[in-house]
Amino acid sequence: MKCDEKIVELMHEYLDEEIDPENEMILRDHLKSCKDCETLFNEYKRTIAVVKGTSRMQAPPNFTANVMASLPKEKKKVGMQRWLRNHPLIAAASLFIVLMTGSLISTWNQDREFSVSKQENLVVENGTVIVPEGEVVKGDVIVRNGELRIEGEVQGDVTVINGEQYLASAGNVTGQIEEVNEVFDWIWYHMKRTAFEVIDIFNDGEE
Amino acid sequence: MEALIKKRIKQVIKGDQDAFAEIVEIYSNSIYQLGYRMLGNRHEAEDIAQEAFIRAYVNIKSFNQDLKFSTWLFRIATNLCIDRIRKKKPDYYLDAEVSGTDGLTMYSQLASNSPLPEIELESLELQDTVHKEILKLPEKYRSVIVLKYIEELSLNEISEILDLPLGTVKTRIHRGREALRQQLRYV
Ligand SMILES: [Zn+2]
Question: Which residues belong to any copy of the Putative zinc-finger domain (chain A) (predicted)?
Answer without folding.
Answer: 5-37
